[in-house]
Amino acid sequence: MFGGVALLNLDSKGRLAIPAKHRDALLEGCGGRLTVTVDPSQCLLIYPQPAWEPVRDKLNNLPAFNPQARALQRLILGHAEELELDSAGRILLSPTLRSFARLDKAVALVGLGSKFELWDEAQWNAQTAAALAMSPADIAAQLDGFVL
Questions:
Q1: Which residue from 121, 114, 117 is spatially nearest to 43, judged by alpha carbons?
Q2: What is the pLDDT of residues 67-120, one digit of tens each?
Q3: CA angle, corner 108, sides to 148 and 33, nearest 5?
Q4: Average model confidence (pLDDT) for the chain?
Q5: Fewest 10 Å CB contacts: which of 3, 32, 44, 119?
Q6: What H or E segment, with its residue span, contains residue 47?
Q7: How many C-beta atoms surround the C-beta of residue 42 within 10 A?
């Protein structure tokens, strides 16, 4: 399970060095094979290959003639790229993926259990500020009474 926020920098070629604590788990759990795709909130999703496969299958099984389902398939499946950690523990993000998420240099890698989100650092800070501005009552109302 992946957790925590790591503030990192992309290099000039668009490579992301995965932090050692996650790199070891990725090498052990999936041989360093990852799928990176886009999220509607304009960040990137990074899945270890075994965690990606059920997501991919669910998306592929959405109704073929539902316009919203097709749009989601085009977005998430259409942008999915299979990557592998290099010998230095880095992944090379394509210009298309970097452009979608507006990634330049400073980024935030956010562990979310079975996957990661990769955000432009300024956008991540804005997301964090928005979450902190939510009242507990608003959270409970939106999430069916969820309480920490």
A1: 117
A2: 999 999 999 999 999 999 999 999 999 999 999 999 999 999 999 999 999 999
A3: 100
A4: 94
A5: 3
A6: strand 44-48
A7: 13
